[in-house]
């Protein structure tokens, strides 16, 4: 190895005698060294770009500045800038190293390996040879490329690689002058852009404010066309989509069906016939035989979050097969009309609202039995859960008969919520009046004293709406409404809207006299727990009382509250003074669990050793957790020697994991999470909140208390049923006789 290094040194000295020199220090007054890594190195991007390389710390050779420029393939260049005090002739030297993969020496100059240009003029590089390379391709040779005229001011020297088969690394360029000072030029770069178009690339340019030199620093990829939705072009007889950036058009064949849909983001984007008729979706017939996706109603009343639906309401939650909306139209004569649905995408995904494309995969529509093609209708996705971004689905040139039926509903969607929210159907004609057939859920309505014959009555509580919490349900009930009118009302249009549990009441035939009136709604079901009668504002008409009459006695639901004084375990552990001691303790893990299963795979429904595992207390050190599988039940049975009243305490703890928080949060809407009964009578839970003190604590027990429950002599039954995700953990039941 020493012999080889000595041979390299001898070779370097020999080359120096032939006009080449090894790297050496020179007089700073006449020599200016310009590092290659500080030069303009092109190209700056792409697979063939030249690269700045940090010198290998193991190398025996010294690299100026610790860096050099490598990967100089054909077309790559290094451009240096310097200033000269005056016009002069200067010697140009470049520090090069063999970068060939096999390190073999090779010739350069005379058009081989690289070219040289000074101030835009190509100069002749004499024929020379690059010595054999080293392991790290950094055996530097300071090679004199000749003496050339330079101008006063800024000068530019460009070294351009000519081949991939004669590779060199570049460390620096040295400019030697015996007539005036040479200094490196400092660039002051500004970035400018030539924007990309849909089909052509754009570029970012760097331009020096000082010398005006400019080069392409990076490309901007072509944007690609951004086509909007397809719309029908009557002149072409085709569907046309227009690029929103450049106006380029692409065409497609229109559907073969008689009717097809188009979608628009705003009403101003399309034209219709001039005369408009409004058909609110909630006033059409909504079939929910397939069941609702969420909640208990298909009608959503706007609470300020629904983006201003027409009439303040919309239809939702009907994505299950078997559901649909049926609109019935009766024009004064057969005519041609344009139909416009106002709808919003609700296709949920973890990222937000998923794209609904095409709508024909998820939604069907028929007009008098003719299928509507929705293959060109698509709803965009969103990165957040905004279920009320309204779009307009337009069906043109629809032939309406004397009685036309439009039906729209979900196709099989794999259990997902796919049917868009539906706000309104608008009908546009050329001067032909269209009557809409309004659907009412409750049509058996009379005015006058109640004579229905049901003997058992329950009063509703008055408020902004009238409410009744029933302990059990009744298949049929008569709702008796007491209404005051300041004047007689015979026009149904002047009557307030009445609804029972979201079901609309047909106002036809209702006439009010001045004073007190009785309106009877016959055969309307009474729900277990919350029942609500809503009565919209109308001038001079007021709802003052509501009663429900049933054929058999219906108990009121039991009220509940959180009563810390009944938290027996906590009071005992803390040594509270005079705390109440339960007359009976019923452990959850010892109850009848039926066919209940854990909501978490591999984790038991009954949790044991809770204190050892979590440091949290639990009665008998065990509890029921992972209960949130709809249909899971916990049932306790116990006997009393005689009838008695008691306060019954269910010790519950929130188990509502929130991914954003990363742990447990308070359980609200408890009524939607579990159903609690005492001897078959439902317990009202809708005003309770199970708070938590930490996202890690799933055992923050709360004493949910049902006060003054009448217990029977003999067997009594308590039960909890899970209804949805978020059902709480259950520890124990305490019974305190009162």
Automatic annotation (TrEMBL):
Keywords: Signal
DNA-binding keyword on record: no
Signal peptide, first to last residue: 1-24
Gene3D superfamilies registered for this protein in UniProt: Galactose-binding domain-like
Protein name (record): CBM6 domain-containing protein
The organism of origin for this protein: Candidatus Borkfalkia faecigallinarum
The organism's taxonomic lineage, starting at the top: Bacteria, Bacillati, Bacillota, Clostridia, Christensenellales
């Amino acid at each position: 190895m020493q012999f080889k290094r000595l041979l390299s040194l001898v070779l370097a000295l020999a080359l120096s005698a032939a006009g080449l020199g090894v790297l050496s220090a020179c007089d700073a007054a006449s020599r200016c060294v310009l590092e290659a890594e500080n030069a303009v190195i092109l190209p700056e991007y792409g697979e063939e770009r030249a690269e700045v390389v940090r010198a290998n710390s193991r190398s025996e050779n010294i690299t100026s500045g610790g860096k050099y420029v490598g990967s100089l393939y054909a077309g790559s260049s290094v451009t240096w800038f310097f200033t000269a005090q005056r016009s002069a002739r200067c010697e140009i030297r470049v520090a090069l190293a063999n970068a060939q993969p096999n390190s073999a020496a090779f010739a350069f100059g005379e058009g081989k390996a690289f070219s040289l240009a000074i101030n835009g003029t190509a100069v002749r590089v004499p024929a020379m040879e690059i010595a054999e390379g080293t392991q790290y391709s950094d055996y530097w040779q300071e090679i004199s490329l000749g003496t050339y005229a330079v101008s006063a001011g800024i000068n530019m020297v460009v070294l351009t690689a000519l081949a991939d088969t004669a590779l060199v690394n570049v460390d620096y360029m040295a400019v030697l002058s015996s007539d005036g000072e040479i200094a490196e030029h400092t660039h002051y770069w500004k970035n400018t852009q030539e924007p990309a178009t849909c089909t052509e690339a754009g570029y970012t340019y760097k331009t020096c404010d000082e010398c005006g030199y400019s080069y392409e620093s990076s490309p901007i990829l072509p944007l690609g066309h951004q086509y909007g939705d397809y719309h029908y072009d009557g002149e072409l007889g085709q569907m046309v989509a227009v690029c929103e950036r450049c106006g380029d058009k692409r065409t497609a064949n229109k559907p073969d069906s008689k009717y097809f849909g188009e979608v628009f983001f705003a009403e101003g984007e399309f034209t219709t016939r001039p005369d408009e008729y409004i058909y609110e979706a909630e006033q059409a017939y909504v079939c929910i035989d397939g069941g609702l996706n969420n909640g208990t109603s298909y009608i959503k009343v706007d609470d300020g979050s629904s983006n201003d639906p027409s009439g303040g309401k919309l239809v939702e939650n009907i994505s299950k097969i078997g559901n649909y909306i049926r609109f019935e139209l009766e024009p004064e004569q057969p005519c041609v009309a344009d139909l416009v649905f106002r709808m919003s995408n609700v296709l949920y995904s973890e990222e937000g609202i998923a794209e609904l494309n095409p709508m024909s995969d998820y939604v069907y529509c028929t007009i008098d039995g003719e299928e509507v093609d929705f293959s060109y209708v698509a709803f965009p996705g969103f990165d957040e859960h905004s279920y009320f971004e309204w779009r307009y689905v337009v069906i043109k040139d629809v032939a309406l008969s004397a009685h036309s039926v439009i039906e729209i509903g979900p196709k099989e969607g794999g259990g997902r919520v796919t049917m868009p929210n539906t706000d309104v159907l608008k009908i546009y004609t050329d001067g032909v009046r269209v009557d809409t057939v309004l659907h009412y859920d409750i049509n058996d309505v009379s005015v006058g004293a109640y004579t229905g014959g049901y003997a058992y009555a329950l009063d509703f509580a008055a408020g902004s709406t009238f409410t009744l919490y029933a302990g059990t349900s009744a298949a049929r009930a008569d709702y008796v409404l007491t209404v005051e009118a300041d004047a007689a009302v015979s026009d149904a249009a002047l009557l307030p809207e009445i609804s029972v549990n979201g079901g609309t009441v047909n106002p036809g035939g209702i006439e009010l006299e001045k004073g007190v009136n009785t309106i009877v709604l016959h055969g309307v079901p009474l729900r277990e727990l919350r029942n609500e009668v809503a009565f919209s504002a109308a001038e001079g008409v007021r709802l003052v009382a509501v009663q429900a009459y049933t054929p058999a006695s219906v108990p009121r639901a039991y009220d509940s509250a959180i009563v810390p004084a009944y938290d027996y375990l906590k009071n005992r552990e803390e040594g509270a003074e005079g705390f109440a001691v339960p007359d009976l303790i019923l452990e959850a893990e010892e109850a009848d669990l039926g066919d209940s299963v854990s909501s978490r795979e591999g984790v038991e429904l009954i949790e044991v050793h809770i204190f050892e595992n979590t440091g949290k207390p639990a009665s008998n050190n065990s509890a029921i957790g992972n209960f949130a599988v709809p249909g899971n039940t916990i049932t306790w049975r116990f006997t009393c020697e005689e009838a008695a009243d008691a306060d019954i305490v269910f010790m519950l703890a929130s188990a509502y994991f929130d991914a954003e928080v990363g742990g447990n949060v308070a359980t609200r809407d408890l009524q939607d999470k579990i159903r609690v009964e005492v001897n078959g009578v439902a317990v009202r839970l809708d005003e309770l909140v199970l708070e938590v003190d930490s996202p890690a604590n799933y055992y923050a027990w709360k004493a949910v208390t049902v006060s003054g429950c009448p217990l029977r002599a003999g067997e009594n039954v308590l039960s909890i049923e899970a209804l949805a995700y978020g059902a709480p953990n259950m520890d124990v039941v305490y019974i305190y006789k009162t």
